[in-house]
Amino acid sequence: MEEAYIPVIVYRVSDGTQAMEYLYSHQHPDLVFLDLNMPRVTGWEVLRAMRADEKLRPIPVVIFTPSSPPADIEQAHALGAQRFITKPSTFTGLVVEN
Q1: Which of 16, 27, 45, 47 is most open to solvent, judged by the fewest CB atoms within 10 Å of its CB?
Q2: Are 47 and 20 within 8 A, CB to CB?
Q3: What number of other Cβ atoms are within 10 A of residue 51's Cβ?
Q4: What is the pLDDT of residues 25-71, one digit of tens each?
């Protein structure tokens, strides 16, 4: 985000268990970037838990994951994700020049 000159505070967790602990024990973030392939608790489970919780439900979720089968995209949107972005293999592929 810094390299793209977007001023944000980023909190990163290593797995889905840490993601759930963070969401339930801290001030809620303005946006969640969620990888579906996290260890321990998957991104699917985190998304379902967020949408089932009245306090977490309003937080926008962007799925940011390395694969994008059409069924995954459809399911993510059906579960309430606002966007689905396939991770590019390089940083250059991530940054879009204006």
Answers
A1: 27
A2: no
A3: 14
A4: 888 888 999 998 888 999 999 999 999 999 999 999 999 888 778 88
